[in-house]
Write a structure and sequence with these properties.
Elements: H1 4-18, H2 22-55, H3 61-67, H4 75-89, H5 92-124, H6 127-132, H7 135-145, H8 148-177, H9 179-226, H10 228-233, H11 237-290, H12 303-345, E1 365-374, E2 379-389, E3 393-397, H13 404-411, E4 419-424, E5 427-428, H14 434-438, E6 441-444, H15 455-459, H16 468-477, H17 481-486, H18 504-518, E7 522-526, H19 534-550, E8 556-561, H20 564-567, E9 572-575, E10 583-585
Parallel strand pairs: 3-8, 3-9, 6-7, 7-8
Antiparallel strand pairs: 1-2, 1-4, 4-5, 9-10
Helix pairs in contact: 1-8, 2-4, 2-5, 2-8, 2-12, 5-8, 7-9, 7-12, 8-9, 8-12, 9-11, 9-12, 11-12, 16-18
Length: 600
């Protein structure tokens, strides 16, 4: 849980996103200085209207200079000049509006940079991280918690830049005019700091609880809607409704407790300001009644000076209260931002690094050499050795859960082996630049995840520049021609959420067509025919072989399958078993051993 010092330390953690705009912070500070001068001039005009014009008191040299009139000028002339000066001071209104708009623009730019960087960072994290993170909680942190960066910067940077110069100026004015009012203004500061210190910890605890329960409720929504078919099939609607109602109520109660505590804090800070204002009113009125003199002015403490000093006190105490109230709000947003950095600070143990060498197209083979791997537990694969050669179709066969999908994931470098090596033409794939290596791969995964977009957009996801003819050819190779012709808008038909309108076989063939269209020299297919009938399976494997034969000097295909009929059509088949691999057919290669202990 964050401490008060940690709230300020968040500023250093978001500084990389502020750095590109640091000169704008300076511009914002400079833009506030004219407002300070105009504000002090406005306080001076209050005395002119009440004392000089209203009661016939003499002007000071500063007042005469500001109005550009002689010290002995008549009240009528002073009135006109004071009205003109007051009209000129109205320029402060657009100045404050412009600085406010400038501050909002600055916060929006920084917040956008932060969110885009966060989104990019989330994509860079390994599958190990994403497999452990709940999607609903990650979405909540991405959209809700990350929005706090703007509020943190507003509370710790923007508002102090906007408020502190004005507070300092009005405090100096009070010191010039009235010691008692200045002392009261000083006394308010430690009282507010004491309240801020006392309430900060409890507020952070309550806001943390509120964020956590809200994230749980959000996760419930995401998981239920993602599995809506299962919910309906098992009649779980009522149970899900009750569960969400309970979690949502807990979120509401936690948020209410946090907001009530914040409200109590704000009531107390406003009470301190009110008591301070009453004290300033009392001592200022006594100065007027006693006929005292302004502290550093050669005039009596008149009604005009009293009004000006009271306005200055109100402005200064109001800005102090604004900063203190911001501190209360920061306890919530700092917790939110802390949750974002907590997620970003997680480092998966299986980290995939990028090499420096640009990966070349294969000319010989993709080879697994004594590869071992585990998912934080018993070994999934041990001493795996086999070779997928250019110009050939190679199959990895075995029962479900034996580690076939893990082999494909290792070839894709979703993970790196714990032992052994994967070689491309004899060179360790870890030496290659990761994007350039993955550019050599066309992939059809076991779970063919589709986007809520058109069929064409899904097919061209791995190669957006593909021509219409190339798309049509990939559709033909994957056996999707009849399916596409039956669609109301053909390739421009919108697919449902995650392809919910499609059968498993259709989604599987779309994934295969996407892999063909990628036109990469290495084709990696994970259970490409598991949901297909025998005739379609035969046609798909023939098309895979035809794809390899188009450019046998630079293409290879590696298929992971549990179907004997698919494996039998490969040039070489390696079978993962509990002992040495048995070569089903094809040339002899080093035995492959696997001790499976994870659902691959």
């Amino acid at each position: 849980m964050l401490h008060s010092s940690d709230v300020f330390s968040l500023l250093s953690r978001v500084w990389p996103f502020v750095r590109p705009y640091k000169r704008h912070l300076l511009y914002l500070f400079i833009a506030m200085l004219p407002g300070l001068v105009l504000g002090l001039a406005g306080l001076t005009l209050i005395r002119v209207f009440f004392d000089v014009i209203g009661q016939g008191h003499s002007m000071t040299r500063y007042e005469a200079l500001m109005l550009h009139v002689p010290l002995t000028a008549g009240r009528e002339l002073v009135l006109w000049r004071a009205c003109i000066a007051a009209s000129v001071l109205l320029v402060a209104i657009p100045i404050f509006a412009l600085t406010f708009g400038y501050a909002v623009w600055l916060l929006q730019r920084i917040s956008n940079l932060f969110r885009v960087s966060l989104y990019s960072r989330l994509q860079e994290l390994s599958l190990h991280f994403h497999s452990e993170e709940k999607i609903g909680d990650a979405i909540f942190r991405m959209f809700q918690d990350s929005a706090a960066v703007g509020q943190v910067l507003d509370g710790l940077v923007i508002q102090p830049i906007r408020l502190l110069p004005l507070a300092a100026g009005t405090l100096i004015f009070l010191l010039v005019m009235s010691y008692p009012m200045a002392l009261i203004a000083f006394a308010i500061v430690p009282l507010n700091l004491l309240l801020a210190w006392g309430f900060a910890g409890p507020m952070r605890r309550q806001f943390l609880r509120a964020r956590q329960t809200s994230a749980i409720a959000t996760t419930r929504i995401e998981e239920t809607l993602a599995a809506i078919r299962a919910v309906k099939a098992f009649g779980g609607e009522e149970a899900e409704k009750l569960t969400y109602a309970r979690e949502n109520w807990e979120s509401f109660v936690a948020a209410r407790r946090a907001r009530l505590l914040l409200a109590t804090y704000l009531v107390l800070t406003n009470t301190v300001r009110g008591l301070g204002y009453a004290g300033a009113l009392y001592f200022g009125a006594r100065e007027v009644l006693a006929g005292g003199r302004a502290t550093l002015m050669h005039t009596g403490f008149s009604l005009g000076l009293f009004q000006a000093s009271l306005s200055a006190f109100s402005a200064m105490s109001g800005r102090t209260r604004a900063l203190v109230n911001l501190w209360g709000s920061l306890q919530d947003v700092a917790i939110a931002l802390g949750r974002v950095f907590e997620m970003l600070n997680k480092r998966p143990e299986s980290h995939v690094a990028s090499g420096q060498v640009i990966a070349p197209a294969p000319h010989r083979s993709l080879t697994f050499e004594d590869v071992g791997f585990s998912y934080d537990g018993p070994p999934v694969l041990s001493n795996i050795s086999f070779e997928a050669r250019v110009g050939e179709l190679t199959a990895i066969a075995g029962a479900s859960g034996c580690g076939k999908s893990t082999l494909i994931a290792l070839a894709l470098r979703f993970f790196d082996p714990n032992s052994g090596r994967i070689l491309l033409d004899g060179r360790d794939v870890r030496d290659f630049d990761l994007p350039s290596y993955r550019a050599l791969l066309g992939t059809g995964l076991q779970e063919n995840l589709l986007f809520t977009a058109t069929l064409r957009d899904n097919l061209t996801y791995g190669r957006p520049t593909a021509t219409s003819d190339e798309v049509e050819r990939a559709v033909t190779l994957a056996g999707l021609s009849e399916f596409v012709r039956a669609l109301p808008a053909g390739l421009d038909t919108m697919l449902g959420e995650k392809g919910a309108r499609l059968s498993t076989g259709q989604a599987q063939r779309i994934g295969l067509a996407r892999a063909f269209l990628r036109d990469a020299p290495i084709l990696l297919l994970d259970e490409p025919t598991s949901a297909l009938d025998s005739a379609t399976e035969d046609r798909v494997i023939r098309q895979v072989r035809a794809w390899v034969n188009e450019h046998p000097q630079r293409r290879l295909a590696l298929i992971a399958t549990h179907r004997e009929s698919t494996a039998a059509r490969a040039d070489h088949t390696y079978r993962i078993t509990a002992g040495p691999i048995v070569r089903a057919h094809g040339s002899t290669f080093k035995p492959l051993l696997a001790r499976e202990a994870h659902n691959g």
